[in-house]
C-alpha cells in the first residue's frame, strides 16, 4: 500500500493516480493525512479491497506523508562510510538527536537556506504505525507503518556551534522534506536492503544501500522505545551514508538555484529547489 498527502488530504496512490480515502470510505476515515496512523491497522485492512474514483496525481500538491508527528528522531553516524568521512568512531549505541516537527516539509517544496554552510543528507525515514513501548528488536518492524524518503538538511555552522546544537541546526524551516509518499514495507523488494542516493544539479553525490545501516530499523525501534514510547505518526530519520558536503575536500554546501534530488529504491524520489533564505 502507498498513501500520500495530496492537496492536504489522505489518498491511496494507485497505478493511474490517487483515490481519496475519506470519499472512498464514505467517511469511515477522515481526510487529514495525520489521522491515518492512529487507525493504521483499520486503514490497512480497508485498503486491501478499497475502490473509488481515481483522480489525477498532482506532484506539486504532495505534502509530507506524516505532516504533524509528535516526535521526530534522527540518528547520527549510522553508516560506517559516513563515520569514516567524519573522522569519528562508530558509536556503540545509536547517536540520537531530534528534528523539530515545524521543520518538516513536502517532497517538492523549496529548501530555504539559513546560511552559507547548509549540507545535504539523504535518509531512509521510518514512520511509526503502532505505538511502540519497550519493544523487542525482533518485533520492531511490526510497529512501522511504512517508509519514505527524507533529507536531513543541516546548517553545519549552527549544528557545531556552542558545543553542538544538532537539533537546532537540522530544524530550520524546510529542513525536513519527506515523501513523495509512504510505502508499506511489504511493497519493497527487501526492506533491509534498499539503494538510496541523492544528486545535486544532476551530479550524484551520495550512493549507497540501507544494508549499510549500523543500527537497523527494528534495532532503532527497540532502542528508542526503551527510553520513551514511539507514537503513531512519529518519524525516525535513520541516518545518512558517505558523500555529504562537509566531508569533501574542499567542503561543498548548497547554494541558491541548485536542485537537490533524493531517491530510495522501491519508494520513489523527492526533488527540492534550493532558494535564498528569507528575512528573519
From TrEMBL:
Coiled coil: none annotated. Keywords: Hydrolase, Metal-binding. Belongs to the FAH family. This is Fumarylacetoacetate hydrolase family protein. Signal peptide: none annotated. One of its GO terms (biological process) is small molecule metabolic process. It comes from Iamia majanohamensis. The keyword Metal-binding applies. Pfam families: FAA_hydrolase. The keyword Metal-binding applies. It comes from the Bacteria. Gene3D superfamilies: Fumarylacetoacetase-like, C-terminal domain. Residues 72-275 form the Fumarylacetoacetase-like C-terminal domain. GO terms for molecular function: hydrolase activity; metal ion binding.
Amino acid at each position: 500500500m502507498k498513501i500520500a498527502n495530496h492537496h492536504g488530504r489522505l489518498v491511496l496512490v494507485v497505478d493511474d493516480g490517487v483515490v481519496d480515502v475519506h470519499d472512498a470510505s464514505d467517511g469511515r476515515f477522515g481526510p487529514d493525512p495525520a489521522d491515518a496512523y492512529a487507525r493504521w491497522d483499520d486503514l490497512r485492512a480497508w485498503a486491501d479491497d478499497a475502490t473509488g474514483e481515481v483522480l489525477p496525481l498532482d506532484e506539486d500538491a504532495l505534502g509530507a506523508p506524516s505532516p504533524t508527528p509528535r516526535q521526530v528522531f534522527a540518528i547520527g553516524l549510522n553508516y560506517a562510510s559516513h563515520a569514516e568521512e567524519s573522522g569519528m568512531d562508530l558509536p556503540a549505541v545509536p547517536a540520537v538527536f531530534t528534528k523539530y516537527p515545524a521543520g518538516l516539509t513536502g517532497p517538492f517544496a523549496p529548501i530555504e537556506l539559513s546560511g552559507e554552510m547548509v549540507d545535504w543528507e539523504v535518509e531512509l525515514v521510518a514512520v511509526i504505525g503502532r505505538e511502540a513501548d519497550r519493544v523487542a528488536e525482533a518485533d520492531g518492524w511490526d510497529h512501522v507503518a511504512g517508509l519514505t524518503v527524507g533529507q536531513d538538511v543541516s546548517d553545519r555552522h549552527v549544528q557545531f556551534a556552542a558545543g553542538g546544537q544538532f537539533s537546532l541546526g537540522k530544524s530550520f524551516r524546510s529542513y525536513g522534506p519527506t515523501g513523495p509518499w509512504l510505502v508499506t514495507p511489504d511493497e519493497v523488494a527487501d526492506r533491509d536492503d534498499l539503494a538510496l542516493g541523492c544528486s545535486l544539479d544532476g551530479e550524484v553525490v551520495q550512493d549507497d544501500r540501507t544494508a549499510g545501516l549500523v543500527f537497523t530499523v527494528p534495532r532503532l525501534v527497540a532502542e528508542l522505545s526503551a527510553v520513551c514510547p514511539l507514537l503513531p505518526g512519529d518519524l525516525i530519520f535513520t541516518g545518512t551514508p558517505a558523500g555529504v558536503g562537509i566531508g569533501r575536500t574542499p567542503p561543498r554546501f548548497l547554494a541558491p538555484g541548485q536542485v537537490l534530488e533524493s531517491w530510495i529504491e522501491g519508494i520513489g524520489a523527492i526533488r527540492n529547489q534550493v532558494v535564498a533564505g528569507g528575512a528573519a
